[in-house]
Automatic annotation (TrEMBL):
InterPro entries referenced in this protein's UniProt entry, alphabetically: D-isomer_2-hydroxyacid_DH, D-isomer_DH_NAD-bd, NAD(P)-bd_dom_sf
An annotated Gene Ontology molecular function: NAD binding
Record field: compositional bias (Polar residues): 299-310
One annotated Gene Ontology cellular component of this protein: cytosol
Provenance organism: Mycosarcoma maydis (Corn smut fungus)
The protein's name: D-isomer specific 2-hydroxyacid dehydrogenase NAD-binding domain-containing protein
Top-level taxon: Eukaryota
Pfam family, any one: 2-Hacid_dh_C
Domain D-isomer specific 2-hydroxyacid dehydrogenase NAD-binding: 133-273
Region of interest (Disordered), ranges: 299-321
Amino acid sequence: MINLAIQPSDASATCLCVSSLLASLPTTLRSELSIQACATPTTTALLWLPSARLGDTSSELRRILLECRSIRFVQLPMTGVDEFVPLIRELRARRIVWCCSKGCFGEMCAEHALALTLSLLRRISCRSTTPEHVDSLVSKRVVIVGSGSIAQHLCTMLVPFRCTITCLDSNTSRSDLVSSLRDAQIIMIACALTQATSNLFNCSLFSLLSPCAILINVARAEIVHTPDLISALSTNKLHAAAADVFTPPPAHQLDQMQMLITNAKLLVTQHSAVPTKLIGSLLAHRIRANLETLVESLQADQQDQPSQSHWLGKVDPEKGY
């Protein structure tokens, strides 16, 4: 029997209906679980489902994990887990399996990136558009910063446009990054937020890009330094940009930002890459799959057999995502 704790108590605020999740579990899986309202020393698995309004909950989670040393599996609901990485690394010796939602929403984020790209090229958000100002995605040189689920889906979606596509990952050197971005016409950010990618796109990098380049960000806002982006767009060092996640600029740049939006050089959506109504079902599918894997893993341990565990969204402590 697996003692499964679901916390915090307002977990439904994550767009996941916990009661519906539990009701949807296969009978065979449900029979293996004992649901707990909060973690205890006997807890084996923890669904940590804080709402965004709670802010950083890593310290509270740390307290629970230090008190409940039987926990072997933690499921997080978000894709970016940077706030939990120090804790994951601190408790590495306990060999806790940490999983997040990376890969859950890749297809929809890729779809949104494509929509943003076409909107800028076709100037759909511009009030007055003439044919000479409209461009096409066909045969463009596209660089995708990232090689995960979003990037993989983007590569598929871009096939009909006959683009030349380059994907860069965490192993890409700085020189190769600069070399690839220098000639890019479309740059799509689809990587995790780490120490290496925080403020990666700043004035130094913008100065190396083609002034005709378009920047699309469907990853984390902190990867792009907003004041430098506003400056690059305002001085035509960058043709246009779109972001689903965006850190507000300082007060003195607010008028500049509004002018860029009015002139269709900047397009900002409200973290809408993944429709809210779909988050719950996608997250529930991820949790069900990982709970089934947990049961199989524990059964293999009890029978002293090698585990064939296939965790979805497993966090790599070294990479930080």
